[in-house]
């Protein structure tokens, strides 16, 4: 680590700094050799300087936190960078409390930001420093609301520092939650008398959403190794949501609580809409980027107006939030009072607990100064001609191989076409143009030129290419990120050597793939918040089309389908997991027999010997058909984790039914939830024209039918949304 005597400001380009001089003379006798020498901070009286201190949790974001800590210590004076695991932020804030115009960068999730803000309250900073956010957590709703995006990718630290220096300071309302025990009702052993946090920065809620969050936290604490990816976490939330939708545990929420906002009783509204959760929302973002506040009412959310939005949610609305839906608007208020009559799950900023019958008061506490990432000022003259730019695509394999070599990345890119764009267009507008171009170019082709998860690359700001977070596209003009070509990164296009048969994976390896989908348990069932990008395709390969090349030098007929399978498994099970190749597997009646009998050991043994999980009998039924019909959950779980994705939408010869059809017809609720969460289609009709929902209705299982209907609507909305944007 470098030794430095300079405390650098955020505004590095101006060359302005603060001196940190170590005392040359000993001011007291050292008691031991380990005692450090004191130092003094001498700020230069210049209004343009914005000194920065950084608080970072090295454990956040996988190994991102530790790497970023090293980078910050290199770019800044190491004394400006603090490890939150070594005593928290208090010591660092006290050390720099007399520095004027100070800015603070909190690197981590929303909990890290709340921690820093709470310590600022304790120290009574006057005036309090403005806090910026580098999102490394899972939800990152506060970071999204402030324009910093949903997560850190690979943006240069120097650019982040410039954004902090240039960012505007806004105020964030903070709310106090006081909890008093309700003596009229008996507490329970599992409940507690206080909330996990007493200050609300993002949201406070109670009901089904807090119940799901609590289940997630308890499951993660019990088995942390099973919750090591964001997609797995989302799948758990989806399955838990589906279970609550079927069981309807909180349908009587309005009967067990009263709500008073600004002195007005809102309980009748809760009863009218039969809400299963009540959310007090302080910022526009909720639940990892959804927007439950309905803006169509003409009232925009503000973070500094001293008013909090109150929203009702049902278990039918919750999965639709992921597709752009909204909750039920109850009101806006300056204070609220909730009286509960039973133990109810509650959460504050994602920290959940079961709270005994209580009287809860929500009041305004103060306003915190936050740094927003602002949009660059446009200097384009309106009457200038449009830009003609070439759109080029880069694969993830090339991006990772030549990350620091611009010329090699340019050479490895493949052209998708040309677009005409206004010079003052931001990247959100450019994305629409590119999607329109791809749609027109791809007509008549058997595959797609781009996946849904492509992102922009900045090719001109730094010495290397780096990704632009989709949540921040509205903050960048097209002229900010490119000169002649617009470069796109498609993470679906990976290493060509990973396509098809992997030479380093043997079909004889006995791998327990059912452990890979550990979050699907007998007691959990799926919900609709499962990300649409994971929906399984009904085909395993693309038809031959010489005009479409997914990877330079590789024909789509050889790699396209396997590429789709690999990308799904990468997202669900992690990039380190590769199931055995299905190209060399053999059909076996034993696979069908094992599925009929629910013999998971026999199924695993046959699969490890190279027999195909896609084996079918004379009626065209697969192992998934039989295991779903008979409710063999272990077998279904193993097939979800190990079989090719085409198995989900395979239909039999007799009735034209999928496995989901048969599970619904036989009222196998948990199996239905598992299949829906894994991506099985809800809109396929059998030879009689019935969807799985219709078969559930025919079987007189109205709750299962209602669940399938809500997930069918969600799936349809997502499909329509993708069709309009791609």
Would you give an account of this structure?
- This protein is an alpha+beta fold.
- The chain folds into four domains: 6-137, 3-Layer(aba) Sandwich (Rossmann fold), CATH 3.40.50; 175-372, Tumour Suppressor Smad4 (Sandwich), CATH 2.60.200; 387-493, Ubiquitin-like (UB roll) (Roll); 519-546 and 557-725, Ankyrin repeat-containing domain (Serine Threonine Protein Phosphatase 5, Tetratricopeptide repeat, Alpha Horseshoe), CATH 1.25.40.
- 31% of the residues lie in helices and 19% in strands.
- The strands form five sheets. A six-stranded antiparallel β-sheet has the order 9-8-19-16-11-12. A six-stranded antiparallel β-sheet has the order 15-14-13-10-17-18, sandwiched between helices. A five-stranded mixed β-sheet has the order 21-20-24-22-23, sandwiched between helices.
- Strand 17 (344-348) and strand 18 form a beta hairpin.
Can you describe this structure in just a few lines?
The chain is an alpha+beta fold and about 725 residues long. Helix content is about 30%, strand content about 20%. It has a six-stranded antiparallel β-sheet. Strands 15-14-13-10-17-18 form a six-stranded antiparallel β-sheet, sandwiched between helices.
List the helices and strands and how they pair.
Elements: E1 6-8, E2 17-22, E3 39-42, E4 52-56, H1 64-75, E5 81-83, H2 90-95, E6 103-108, H3 110-123, E7 130-135, H4 141-145, H5 157-166, E8 168-181, E9 199-200, E10 203-207, H6 208-222, H7 230-247, E11 257-261, E12 264-265, H8 267-273, E13 277-281, E14 308-313, H9 317-321, E15 328-333, E16 335-340, E17 344-348, E18 351-355, E19 358-372, E20 387-395, H10 396-401, H11 406-412, E21 414-421, H12 427-441, E22 455-458, E23 466-467, H13 478-481, E24 485-490, H14 556-573, H15 589-597, H16 600-608, H17 623-630, H18 633-642, H19 659-665, H20 669-678, H21 692-698, H22 702-725
Parallel strand pairs: 4-5, 4-6, 6-7, 20-24
Antiparallel strand pairs: 1-2, 2-3, 8-9, 8-19, 10-13, 10-17, 11-12, 11-16, 13-14, 14-15, 16-19, 17-18, 20-21, 22-23, 22-24
Helix pairs in contact: 6-7, 7-20, 7-22, 15-16, 15-17, 17-18, 17-19, 18-20, 19-20, 19-21, 21-22
């Amino acid at each position: 680590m470098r030794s430095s005597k300079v405390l650098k400001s955020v505004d590095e380009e101006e060359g302005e700094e603060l001196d940190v001089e170590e005392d040359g003379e000993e001011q007291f006798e050292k008691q031991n050799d380990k005692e450090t020498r004191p130092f003094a901070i001498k700020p230069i009286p210049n209004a343009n300087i914005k000194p920065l201190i950084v608080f970072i949790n090295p454990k956040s974001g996988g190994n991102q936190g530790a790497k970023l800590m090293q980078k910050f210590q290199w770019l800044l004076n190491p004394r400006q960078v603090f490890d939150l695991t070594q005593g928290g932020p208090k010591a660092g804030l006290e050390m720099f409390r007399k520095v004027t115009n100070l800015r603070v960068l909190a690197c981590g999730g929303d909990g890290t930001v709340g921690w820093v803000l709470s310590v600022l309250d304790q120290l009574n900073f006057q005036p309090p420093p403005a806090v910026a956010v580098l999102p490394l957590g899972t939800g990152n709703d506060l970071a999204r609301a402030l324009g910093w995006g949903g997560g850190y990718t690979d943006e240069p630290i120097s650019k982040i520092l410039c954004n902090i220096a240039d960012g505007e300071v806004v105020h964030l309302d903070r709310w106090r939650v006081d909890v008093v025990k309700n003596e009229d009702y008996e507490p329970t052993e599992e409940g507690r008398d206080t909330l996990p946090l007493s200050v609300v920065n993002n949201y406070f809620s109670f009901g089904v959403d807090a119940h799901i969050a609590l289940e997630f936290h308890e499951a993660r604490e019990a088995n942390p190794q099973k919750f090591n990816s964001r997609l797995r976490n989302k799948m758990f939330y989806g399955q838990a949501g589906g279970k609550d939708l079927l069981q309807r545990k909180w349908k009587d929420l309005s009967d067990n609580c009263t709500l008073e906002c600004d002195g007005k009783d809102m309980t009748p509204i809760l009863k009218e809409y039969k809400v299963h959760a009540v959310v007090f929302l302080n910022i526009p973002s909720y639940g990892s980027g959804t927007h439950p506040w309905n803006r169509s009412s003409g009232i925009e959310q503000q973070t500094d107006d001293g008013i909090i939005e109150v929203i009702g949610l049902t278990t039918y609305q919750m999965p639709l939030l992921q597709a752009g839906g909204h909750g039920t608007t109850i009101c806006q208020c300056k204070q609220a009072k909730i009286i509960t009559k039973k133990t109810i799950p509650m959460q504050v900023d994602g920290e959940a607990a079961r709270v005994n019958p209580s009287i809860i008061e929500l009041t305004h506490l103060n306003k915190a100064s936050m740094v927003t990432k602002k949009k660059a000022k446009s200097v384009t003259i309106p009457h200038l001609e449009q830009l003609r730019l070439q759109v080029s695509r880069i694969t993830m394999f090339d991006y990772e191989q030549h990350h620091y070599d611009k010329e090699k990345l340019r050479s490895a890119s493949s052209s998708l076409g040309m677009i005409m764009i206004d010079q003052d267009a931001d990247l959100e507008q450019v994305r629409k143009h590119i999607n329109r171009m791809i749609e027109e170019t791809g007509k008549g082709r058997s595959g797609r030129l781009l996946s849904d998860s492509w992102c922009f690359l900045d090719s001109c700001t730094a010495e290397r290419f780096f990704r632009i977070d989709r949540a921040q596209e509205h903050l960048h003009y097209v002229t900010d990120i490119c000169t002649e070509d617009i470069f796109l990164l498609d993470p679906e296009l990976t290493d060509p050597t990973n396509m098809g048969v992997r030479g380093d994976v043997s079909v004889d390896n006995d791998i327990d793939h059912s452990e890979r989908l550990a979050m699907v348990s007998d007691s959990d069932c799926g919900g609709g918040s499962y990300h649409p990008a994971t929906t399984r395709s009904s085909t395993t390969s693309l038809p031959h089309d010489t005009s479409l090349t997914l990877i330079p030098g590789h024909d789509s007929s050889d790699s396209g389908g396997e590429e789709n399978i690999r990308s799904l498994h990468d997202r669900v099970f992690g990039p380190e997991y590769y199931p055995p190749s299905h190209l060399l597997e053999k059909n076996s009646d034993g696979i069908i027999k094992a599925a009929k009998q629910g013999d998971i050991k026999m199924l695993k043994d046959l699969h490890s010997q190279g027999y195909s999980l896609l084996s079918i009998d004379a009626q065209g039924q697969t192992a998934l058909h039989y295991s779903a019909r008979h409710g063999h959950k272990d077998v279904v779980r193993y097939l979800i984790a190990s079989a090719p994705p085409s198995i989900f939408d395979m239909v039999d010869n007799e009735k034209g039914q999928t496995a989901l059809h048969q599970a619904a017809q036989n009222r196998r609720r948990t199996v239905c939830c598992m299949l829906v969460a894994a991506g099985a289609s809800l809109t396929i009709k059998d030879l009689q024209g019935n969807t799985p929902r219709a078969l559930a209705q025919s079987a007189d299982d109205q709750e299962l039918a209602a669940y399938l209907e809500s997930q069918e609507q969600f799936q349809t909305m997502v499909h329509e949304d993708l069709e309009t944007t791609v």
